Amino acid sequence: MLLLDKRIRIIDEEVRRYVELGYRVVDRTPMTAQLVKQKKFDCLWALIGFMAFFVGLLVYLIYYVVTQPDTALYLEVDQSGKVIASFS
Fold this sequence. Notes:
- Helices cover about 45% and strands about 25% of the residues.
- With about 90 residues, it is of the alpha+beta class.
- It has a four-stranded antiparallel β-sheet, covered by helices on one side.
């Protein structure tokens, strides 16, 4: 069983790693963190759709809204110092 300080340092490093990948911290406790990565709008596909007489743009906008939810991540450090990641 690891000391509390060591477990906090482990979760801090893991959170830092995910923040560098584009995640944003939503909630944080000493042993857990909840992060979210927002979906991205692709301007190239929107422009191609716009150039295809608005039909392609409309299709892409519907696709964007319907199929790409934000990615949620929940991190937790157990007593042995192992980081447990759960995506939703």
